[in-house]
Design brief:
Helix content is about 50%, strand content about 10%. It is an alpha/beta fold. The strands form 4 sheets. The chain has a 4-stranded antiparallel sheet with strand order 1-2-4-3, covered by helices on one side. It has a 4-stranded parallel sheet with strand order 6-5-10-11, sandwiched between helices.
């Protein structure tokens, strides 16, 4: 659903020939929007700006949307949307099951790679960001009519399993009885022996060979480690309120059977070549090659990610692939994207995008860590926020803080500021939703009904209706550019406009059509806030 602002801009541009660069009017008496397009056209045309403005006003076709256009000052054009147009736009939103979000005419299958914890390790602070961001993308892209295929690329394969399994056997340990913290403790004990006990290190290497060869005893312990880890992951996902399930797990082990075939294919076609004993692919524009197989015959992340792209195009039928990882991995993904395209595994019709995120910082401006100075676990952050507020409010605080700034930037984890119900915070948005619901609940208790938005005489209610009309367009923008801070900013502006409306336009104390219309406007605002919060993965409470 095109917003009224975009519709106006397109009409003015059709007459002017250039972007009108419309801005919200600074005062109600100037209407809803102003444009300086006449001033910018005047100089090249060699005409007075007001004369150019008068010419444009005569040609701009907005009679169905606006009051007669006005020329102000040296040649500004003021635009005021007709109240009945604003009212109809708000009423349409209230009735629309998609809340103004247009469904894609050409829906895509979109694979999103996110979360990706490691087996036998608790999730840390970085997993908080990838999980929250990926979940938001999942929700937004689904809401716009696409089919999203989440892929949780867990670290469930590699050399570490040799030492883990060998340590478990040495301790005669029932791995199934462990929780995720216990599995991580096992990892630390094994890792401690790896560098100090040569005999243990040799056995760990042999155990990796046994795992790769399909030894049943080894595979049984490996599977149990994965199951224990999945339980721990799911506890965290449930606590975070994200959409990931076991069905979305597609770990490194999934691609292991394909790695040799990828290497053989690329070498046979001359795309990969042996260099200093390693099989590599050189790509124009990159200083170093992608290493498919090292000189010892081992496979690394480069070939695994190339194989994953091939699988996602051929098996999952992806039209778009999005990776959500630490911003520091940007170069790696640009390289493996280039290799997959060079190999023809990813055709031009499929887009591949890496969305990098910054670090979570403590109040001291350093990476968030425990008191011991080690990287903090995800549960540490959740516990810190829940010391101040209930879980739904704590999650709103964390998710909004994460999503409301540009993703690649670091952000400071400050539980006190983040959980405030005033200011630019998630709880403030929840409070705005609860306030709208409270008004509607009181009206219902008093037997006062409402249907549509019909009367919009006051600037505060007009501004709120105008802002509501932008929701669908904002969501489509996030679906295209993967910048959720734009949605967060919009919702904060909407909550702020709701607060101004509440203060300046009595709802229950007004009467007749005005009261019914204002109740409908509250209902529309509540609906849009709930839809927007849901897209951020935030609960919209009915009361706080």
């Amino acid at each position: 659903m095109q917003s009224l602002a975009s519709l106006l801009s397109a009409r003015v541009e059709a007459a002017a020939g250039i972007d009108p660069e419309m801005r919200p009017a600074t005062k109600p008496q100037f209407g809803h929007f102003q444009t300086n397009v006449a001033l910018r056209l005047a100089k090249p045309q060699g005409r007075p700006p007001r004369e150019v403005a008068a010419d444009l006003v005569a040609r701009i076709d907005l009679a169905d949307l606006c009051e007669p256009l006005e020329i102000a000052g040296p040649g500004f054009i003021n635009l005021r949307i007709r109240p009945e147009v604003l009212a109809q736009a708000a009423s349409d939103l209230l009735a629309d099951p998609h809340t103004g979000i247009d469904q894609s005419e050409h829906p895509q299958r979109i694979v999103i790679d996110y979360s990706s914890p490691n087996v036998a390790k608790q999730m840390h602070v970085g997993h908080l960001r990838t999980t929250i961001i990926g979940d938001c993308f999942n929700r937004v892209l689904t809401a716009t009519g696409n089919t999203v295929v989440p892929q949780n690329h867990v670290g469930d394969w590699g050399r570490q399993f040799g030492m883990l399994i060998e340590q478990a056997l040495d301790e005669a340990l029932d791995v199934s009885a462990l929780d995720l913290a216990g599995a991580e403790a096992l990892y630390k004990r094994a890792n401690g022996r790896l560098s100090s006990e040569e005999e243990f290190a040799d056995r760990a290497r042999e155990r990796v060979v046994a795992l790769q060869a399909g030894d049943e005893e080894t595979l049984a312990i490996w599977r149990r480690l994965i199951e224990v880890s999945k339980v721990g992951f799911n506890e965290a996902y449930d606590r975070l309120g994200v959409l990931l399930t076991d069905a979305d797990i597609a770990g490194e082990s999934l691609y292991n059977p394909f790695l040799e075939g990828v290497c053989d294919d690329l070498e046979a076609r001359g795309i990969a070549k042996v260099d200093d004993g390693a099989l590599v692919v050189f790509v124009d524009g990159f200083d170093a090659p992608a290493i498919l197989r090292n000189r010892h015959g081992g496979y690394g992340y480069d070939v695994t990610d190339v194989a994953a792209q091939r699988y996602r195009v051929e098996e999952l039928q992806a039209d778009r692939i999005i990776y959500v990882t630490d911003a520091r991995q940007r170069h790696h993904f640009e390289l493996v994207f280039a290799v997959a395209r060079k190999a023809g595994y990813v055709p031009d019709s499929v887009s591949t995008e890496h969305v990098g995120y910054g670090m979570v910082l403590g109040a001291d401006g350093k990476p968030f860590s425990t008191r011991e100075g080690t990287a903090a676990y995800l549960i540490d952050l959740l516990d810190a926020a829940e010391e101040h507020v209930t879980r739904p409010v704590a999650l709103a605080a964390i998710k909004y803080a994460d999503l409301s700034s540009q993703l690649q930037k670091d952000y400071v984890f400050d539980p006190v500021r983040m959980t405030a119900t005033t200011g630019d915070t998630g709880p403030y948005l929840q409070y705005a939703h609860a306030r709208a619901n409270q008004i509607l609940r009181r009206a219902e208790a008093e037997g006062i009904g409402w249907a549509n938005v019909t009367v919009l005489a006051e600037p505060a209610e007009q501004n709120l209706a105008l802002l509501l009309s932008r929701f669908g367009e904002v969501v489509l923008g996030v679906a295209a550019d993967l910048q959720p801070h734009k949605l967060a900013t919009y919702l904060f502006d909407l909550a702020t406009a709701m607060s101004v409306f509440y203060e300046q336009c009595p709802v229950l104390k007004s009467e007749g059509d005005v009261r019914a219309s204002r109740l409908a406007l509250c209902a529309t605002t509540k609906k849009v806030l709930a839809a927007g919060l849901n897209l951020l993965g935030i609960e919209a409470p009915d009361q706080m």
